[in-house]
Amino acid sequence: MTSTAFTLLVSVVFTFGWLYFFVRRDRHPEPLALIARTFAWGMFSWLVAATLGAALHPSFASALTMVLLTAVLEESSKLLAASTALTSPSFDEPMDGLVYAVTAALGFALMENLTYALGFGSGAATWHALLTTLAHAMFSAPQGYALGGLHWQRGRRWVAQGLALSVLLHFAFNGILSGEATPVTLAALALTVLLMILLTSRYYLQFEAEARRLAAERGWLPGRRPPGT
To answer: What does the alpha-carbon distance between residue 93 and residue 209 come to, in Å, rounded to a whole number?
Structure first.
C-alpha cells in the first residue's frame, strides 16, 4: 500500500468512525438513506466552499481576512447541506439537528481530507485528517443545536446565532493554527478545543434528555424509529 493510499484509508476510517460515534448517540436512529444523502450533500458543500474561496481569494490581501472568509464559507455551506434534511418526516426531534449537522460536516471533512492528501502528500495529509475530521464535526455542533431548536419554535435568528458561533469557533481554531507555535498559542488552541468539546457535550446531553422526555410522552422505544418515519 502506498503512503497516499494509506492516508486516504486513514481519512475514510476516521470519518466513518466519528460518524458512527455521533449517529449512535441518537436514541431513535435516523434512516440510513437520509444519513447517506446528507453526508453526500456535505461532500458537495466542500466543492461549493472551495470554489467560492478560490474565486474570492485574489480580492483579499490579509491572511487573517482569508481565515475568516474560509470559516464563513465553510460553515455556511455545511449548514445548507444539513438543512436539506429539515423537510424529511424523520426530522422529528431536536437531536436530529445535531445528527444531520455533524453528518454534513463529516462529509465535508472527508472531501477536504481526500483533496488535501492528493494535493499535499501523505505526511501532511495524515496529520490534517487526524486534526480536522473531529474539528469539523465540533465546529458544526452550534448550528446543529440551532437546527434542533426549530422543534421548540425557534426562528431564523436562532439559526443565525448558531451559525455565527460555528464560524467563530472555526475562525479561532484556524487562526491559532496559522500562527507561530508558542506556549501562548498552544494554550489558546487547547482552550478552544476544550470549549468545542464542552459545547458539543452540552448540546448532546440536553437533546438526549429531551429525547427521553419525548419518548416517554409519545411511547417511542429506544433504538427504533417512531411509527410513520
So the answer is: 11
CB-neighbour burial class of residue 226 (10 A; exposed 0-12, middle 13-18, buried 19+):
middle
Q: CA-to-CA distance for 125 and 114, rounded, in angstroms?
A: 8
What cell does 124 get? 501532511
Domains of the chain: which residue ranges? Answer: 3-217
Kindly report, residue by residue over 150-177, the tens digit of the pLDDT.
876 667 788 899 999 999 999 999 988 8
Task: Tell me the pLDDT tens digit for each residue of 116-132.
Answer: 888 776 666 777 788 88
Measuring CA to CA, how many Å separate 78 from each of 41, 86, 105, 229? Answer: 8, 14, 6, 24
- Residue that the C-alpha cell 437520509 belongs to: 34
pTM attached to this predicted model: 0.89
